[in-house]
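Narrative summary of target 7.
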Amino acid sequence: MQYFHKLKEKWGITSNKQLWIIFIVFGLTGSSSVKIARPFLDFIGLVPDVFLEIPLGNVLYWFLRILVIFPLYQVLLLFFGALFFQFNFFWQFEKKILSRIGFKRFFSED
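Modeled conformation, tokenized:
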């Protein structure tokens, strides 16, 4: 339980209910992005068979798959966060993550 206390402190939340809602949102987002990814990647033609003849094609396929799915995951995270009335938490979380990977200039300092 001490781990949950530290996590709540780190994320700036006070209730266990909000913590569990956040866990549910992360779970739903991860599951949904995996479910949506296959049909979306099939639609745009990013399938493993295309990479069979390329040296290290499997590695390239997975790199491109993650690159394509990453923005989808971010959008779904905000969607489910809003659906569970936690949009502000997830918007702050998104800004922090995106700032760390080089998109800091798009977000003003709060």
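The mean pLDDT is 88.
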